[in-house]
Amino acid sequence: MKPVDALIELLDRVGANQGVAVLVTDDELRQWPSEAVRAMKSQKLVTRTRPATSAICPGCEHQCVMPVHTSPAGSKASFIVCDKRSDVNRVPVSGSRMIQWQCNADLVCRFIAASLGLRRSGSQTAHADLWEIGIVTGDKRSQMLCLQADGGLTLVVCGNRVPLAELIAFCDGQYSLDGAMIRRMVDAATTADNRYTPSQVKREARKIETQALHASWQKKYRELKRSKPGKIDRWYANQIAKMDIAHNRKAETIRKNMKK
Q1: Which residues contact 186 (CB under 8 A, 6 or more apart)?
Q2: Which segments in the chain show pLDDT lower than 50?
Q3: Nearest alpha carbon to residue 256 among 148, 154, 163, 161
Q4: End-to-end distance of the chain based on CA atoms, in angstroms?
Q5: Which tens digit of pLDDT belongs to each residue from 91-106?
Q6: Are the C-beta atoms of residues 131 and 153 closer than 8 Å to each other?
Q7: Best label site of 24, 27, 152, 201, fewest CB within 10 Å?
Q8: Which pLDDT score, from 0 to 100, does residue 201 have?
């Protein structure tokens, strides 16, 4: 897993959770690249939150997820009560196993604003899944940049939209965004500063367009599989990315959507 992949996985969870906080344990963070975790913490993409109330039991090889109990009378000792085996009762659990981190839409908005040097708006629109980030200035005009969490995380400038994952880069131990691409979105937007999500009709139209785009990738993927069998999925995605049907989408985005 590359550092970019780790952050995209985290952002996918936030998007799937409609922007509400998702929790990540210390054990899970240790499975991600160490440089990715350091960047997430230093850039406050994840922040420490309350300890977990359940954990994987270390008592045997079954690794059951069980509730964690804490001894009374001021003791900080934590344990799991095993009800699966007769030869095991209380299983001690170290405090490090219960450390949790969180990420939510607000933290993502703060990261975006910091990456682009924006003055953070801090406002949520009338729509529960849309947050204002700040005013972005392009070569032609200025527009409000918003984050939408509607099954995925998307940057919105008026009617222009792009998945946040397509704009993320990792360099010199830090995450960053493609600011040039975002400024082009601003310049391509209408003059009016619409600070709200597009109408349901427009949203449904975009959904149909996206489905048609994915269908064209899926068709081409099947054709390539027949003509060039035995290649890995990433190879097929790279070939499609060079074609007009890619519509400037990255190969990784195509790979994730070229199969039904």
Answers
A1: 136, 137, 138, 140, 141, 142, 143, 145, 157
A2: 194-198, 201
A3: 163
A4: 24
A5: 666 656 667 889 999 9
A6: no
A7: 201
A8: 47
Per-residue pLDDT at 9: 93
> Would you say 96 and 117 are in contact if contact means Cβ atoms under 8 Å apart?
no
In this structure, the dihedral spanned by the alpha carbons of residues 224, 227, 233 and 236, taken in order and rounded to 10 degrees, is: -50
E strands within the chain?
22-25, 47-49, 54-56, 65-67, 69-70, 78-81, 90-93, 100-103, 130-137, 142-149, 153-157, 160-163, 168-171, 174-177
The pair of three-digit structure tokens given for residue 62, joined into one six-digit string? 């079954």
pLDDT of the residue at 124 = 59
Structure tokens at 80: 């799991």
- Could you tell me which of 42, 39, 7 has the C-alpha nearest to residue 153? 7
Beta bridge partners, 24, equal: 101
pLDDT in tens, 178-216: 999 999 988 887 655 544 344 554 566 677 888 889 999
CB atoms within 10 A of CB 33: 15
What's the pLDDT score for residue 195? 46
| C-alpha distance from residue 116 to each of 35, 104, 120, 138 (Å) | 21, 19, 10, 12
